[in-house]
Amino acid sequence: MITNLIIALLLVGSADCFAQSSNPQYDPHLAQKLGADEYGMKTYVMAFLKSGPNRPKDAVARLELQKAHLKNISRLADEGKLIIAGPFMDDQPIRGIFIFNVSTVEEARKLTQTDPAIKAGSLIMELHPGYGSAALMETVTIHKKLQKKSIAD
Hints:
- By secondary structure, the chain is α+β, with helices and mostly antiparallel strands.
- 42% of the residues lie in helices and 23% in strands.
- It has one domain: Alpha-Beta Plaits.
- The protein is built from six helices and four strands; from the N terminus they run ααβαββααβα.
- Strands 2-3-1-4 form a four-stranded antiparallel β-sheet.
């Protein structure tokens, strides 16, 4: 009887040890703040920005639309909804990428509808749910410390 009790206590203690993190650097407060699961990951929605059917031909109109597009990017980043945004550097139909801090394609679709370039038909979005490091959530904060000038100005 006492042997069974000792074995039971050892098993409970062992189970508790296995439940703890095997990573000595694990920060549960940071993981919670960033919305990380037990693997340090979370769900995002990735958007591929593609050339749309209504690309402005006039240089001034194209520049004004681009400025409005960049201001919208900055606004979404400031709101914590857009984690990564940037153009691709080759001249292809896929013009750039967004990574949205939302868990559904529908939420991302609503955010894309706020973009003046989408509204004008200059760009279209292809949306895909994805799974990536929750550390991406720190990108905007770090970026603000690195940028000397805003791209939206």
